[in-house]
Design brief:
Elements: H1 3-6, E1 28-29, H2 31-40, H3 44-65, H4 69-80, H5 103-115, H6 119-123, H7 133-136, H8 142-152, H9 154-167, E2 178-187, E3 192-203, E4 206-207, E5 216-217, H10 224-239, E6 242-243, E7 249-250, H11 254-257, H12 267-279, H13 284-295, H14 301-309
Antiparallel strand pairs: 1-5, 2-3, 3-4, 6-7
Helix pairs in contact: 2-3, 3-4, 3-9, 4-5, 10-12, 10-13
Length: 319
Amino acid sequence: MQVTDFYNITEEDPLFLNVHVDRDNLLYLDPFAIRQEAKRHPSDYGESAVACMKSFFETVAACAISTRAGDQLRGERLLQTFNEPSETRLGMSKEGYQGKGAALQKGTEIWNSLRTDAQGLLNVGIFHMLEELPVFVDGVGADVTSDLTTRIIFEPLALFTQKMLAEYPQLTSGNHKIEAIHRNVWDSQTKTWMEKEFLLPVADNHPLLLVPRNWARASVVLDYGGFYQKGVLTYAQRQHSVVLNDGKILRPSKKNLSKQERYQRGRKTVIAVVQEAARENELILQDFKQMLERDFSFYSREKLAEALAKEPGAQDYGH
C-alpha cells in the first residue's frame, strides 16, 4: 500500500516519493541527484541536505589524511554511526523494511579504504564528495550509499516531512497520528552526530520519513562500473591510440585494454589510473561528472511508478 492509498491522498503526482509503506522499495537516495535537485530547484531542505553531505565528507576526509591518532579514531567512529534506516522504506532488505545493517563493520571497511588505497586522492582533493564513494571504495554500492546518505541528511528529510504535513492535512487527519522519535543525526554546524527529536507521521505502525521525489533512483548516477567504462578505459584508449601514416587513428578496443593487468576492472585500477591521469593534468573524474550533469534528467512519473512497483522479493510483511 502506497502513501497516497494509506492516507487517502487523491493527488496523482505528489511532491514526495510515493513509497509502499508496508515494504521496502527498490529505490535509493542518491547524493548526486540530491545535488542536482538543489541546483535546479533550490529549497531550504535541499540546501541543508547539501550542506550536511559536504560537511560530513570533508570532516571524515580531514580525519583520514591526518597523522593524529585522535583524528583517525574520530574518523572511523563517524563512519560507524550510521545504520540501515527504516523510516524511508527505501532499500532491498528481505525482511520487510526492518533491515539489519552491519554499521560497525561497514564503517570500518570504508574507513580502511580511505586510510589506504584512496588516501592519495583525498590528499590532492580529487576524491572530495560523498557521491564519489562508490567509485573508489570496495563494497560501496547504491544500498550502502543510500543508507549512509539517509543518516547524514535525516534532519533535512525531517524538515521536508514537516512541510508535507502542512501541505497534505490527510497525513494527520482521522485516526492517523504523528509520533516523536529520537535519532542520531549529522549536525553540519558542530560537525558531530547529535541525538535530536523529530515528529513523524506513523504508517503501518512505524514512523515514516518522506523523501522528495527527485532524490531517489533505481541506481546511483555516479557508479563505479560507468566510470570504469567511460572514464578509465576511455582515458586508456587515448593513451594507447596511434596515428597512422594516412592520418587515421588506430584505437585499441576497451575489451582488449581491460584484459591488460594495469587496466583490469577493480577499484585499485580506477584509483591508479585517476592518479596517473592527474599527473598528466587530466581530471578524468571531473570530466566524467560534467558529462553526467549535462545528460542528467529526473525520473518521469511513469519511471518512478515502474521502479516502485518492483518488490525486493517474497516477504512476510507482518509485524
